[in-house]
Design a protein that fits this description.
- It is built from 13 helices and 19 strands.
- It is of the alpha+beta class.
- It comes from Levilactobacillus parabrevis ATCC 53295.
- It holds the Pfam family Peptidase_M20.
């Protein structure tokens, strides 16, 4: 691509982002919280209109029982584009609840620009990413047309575990057919390296409950009566070692070792402990002396929360009759979410805690693209064009998402790229992206489409 053409595209991107800022603000202003059943239809209408303004054909799929609507859009390659190549964008339109509200420095559902950042719930995860992709498409249309066919699929339940993705991909697999998929989000690490991430960890969520009596008892009886909260924490403490190691028999069976290519990619990943501690306010020692590798390929078991007994004001000296904990496991390729929860129950039984009951909530298997795939290599090469030497290829993220059902339905590589940075605070108060990263990610999106569409 000539320097003149590149300059024209960058100018068009800058113009599109400026013109589209009101649309971004409108999209972010909707409190689209799937967990509370808020804002769904209003958000779907904004998405539908936004895609149609670019000339896309749009369908709203309401044929998956119990699901929030899926929005599907298609755009053909321009007259000079490659109509034999199709790229699918996946995004989600639901966001996390904004609570705790008193920790926000501005209104969470009002786009605020300060200190070089866009701040709002969903600006990084993941409404902002969708809007910058539309701006990149608009710029391409204004400077010669789309270099390939595009498809968009947006769901409204990602933040509650994407429970209806699998039936949707099975039903609409033919419509979703593409040569590659760009996932919802991504960005820069703590050392400002732009990451091309090629997969996700899996997850298994389950509850563990304990019951020790039919009613709460006077705490004086603790001299000879056990209680549910103590019983629960004692049982849970047998599942994990002091360094985070999972002590459940069979938990790691089936875990696939990293390939030489994946291991080489992991070995070149930096880990900035000082920046990580500062960004998250960490107080305790790290659990691994190889945190970058652990994030990629170490399964985990985590207590998300425990409830039981009395925690209110004043005194109430009781032996709680019931206690409950919610846990999740982050999984790697080769682990089955439901089987993992069954193994936890078996381990509690073996450890003498058969009275504790494990109930499975939901889960997602892990997924990892082939790092040697040509599209992955194109994505990395394009990243070097836009970001210079500060680029890292990452086998998978530490978080989870429904990539496996997409791969089963479409069978093509999936990458995560976007505009976030180490301080974006997705799911936290004051969620943000830096404006400069937002602009840069739009430029990257346009360039990767151009390189992907080359004949």
């Amino acid at each position: 691509m000539s320097e003149k053409t590149t300059d024209a595209l960058q100018t068009a991107i800058d113009q599109a982002l400026k013109a589209d800022r009101p649309r971004l603000a409108k999209y972010l202003s909707i409190e689209t919280v799937a967990a509370k059943h808020l804002g769904i239809e209003e958000t779907v209408s904004v998405i539908e209109q936004s895609l149609q303004e670019l000339g896309a054909e749009v369908e709203v799929w309401r044929d998956i029982p119990g699901s929030n609507p899926f929005v599907f859009g298609t755009l053909p390659a321009g007259p000079n584009g490659n109509s034999d190549k199709t790229l699918l964008f996946y995004n989600h339109y639901d966001v996390q609840p904004a609570e705790p509200l008193d920790e926000w420095d501005s209104e969470p559902f009002q786009l605020t620009e300060k200190n070089g950042q866009y701040v709002a719930r969903g600006v990084s995860d993941d409404k902002g990413e969708f809007m910058l992709r539309l701006s990149a498409v608009k710029a391409l249309q204004a400077t010669g047309g789309l270099p390939c066919n595009l498809k968009f699929i947006l769901e409204g339940e990602e933040e509650v575990g994407s429970p209806h993705i699998e039936p949707m991909t099975k039903k609409h697999g033919a419509a979703l057919a593409a040569d590659a998929i760009i996932w919802e989000t991504g960005g820069k690490d703590a050392d400002e390296n732009f990451q091309v991430t090629c997969g996700v960890k899996g997850t298994a969520s389950f509850n563990v409950t304990a019951k020790s009596a039919e009613s709460d008892l006077h705490s004086s009886l603790a001299a000879f009566v056990d209680n549910a909260v103590w019983r629960l924490v004692q049982g849970l403490s047998t599942l994990r070692g002091p360094k985070g190691e999972v002590l459940v028999d069979g938990f790691n069976d089936g875990v696939k070792p990293l390939t030489p290519t994946e291991q080489a990619a992991v070995d070149q990943l930096p880990f900035n402990e000082e920046a990580t501690r500062k960004n998250f306010g960490l107080k305790l020692p790290l659990l691994s002396d190889k945190p970058a590798e652990a994030l990629i390929n170490r399964p985990t078991i985590t207590i998300n929360g425990i409830s039981g007994g009395y925690e209110g004001n004043g005194l109430k000296t009781v032996l709680p009759k019931e206690a409950r904990a919610q846990l999740d496991c982050r999984l790697v390729p080769g682990q089955d979410p439901r089987h993992v929860s069954e193994l936890v129950q078996q381990q509690l039984d073996k450890n003498g805690f058969s009275d504790l009951h494990v109930s499975y909530n939901q889960g997602e298997p892990a997924f990892r693209s082939d790092l040697t795939d040509s599209f992955v290599q194109t994505a990395v090469a394009t990243a070097h064009e836009v970001y210079g030497d500060a680029v890292k290829l990452v086998p998978n993220a530490g978080g989870s998402g429904p990539q496996a059902p997409f791969f089963e339905a479409v069978g093509v590589p999936i990458i995560d790229v976007g505009s976030t940075w180490a301080g974006s605070g997705a799911h936290a108060p004051n969620e943000n992206v830096r404006v400069s990263d937002y602009v840069q990610a739009a430029r990257y999106t346009a360039r990767v489409l151009q390189n992907f569409g080359e004949k």
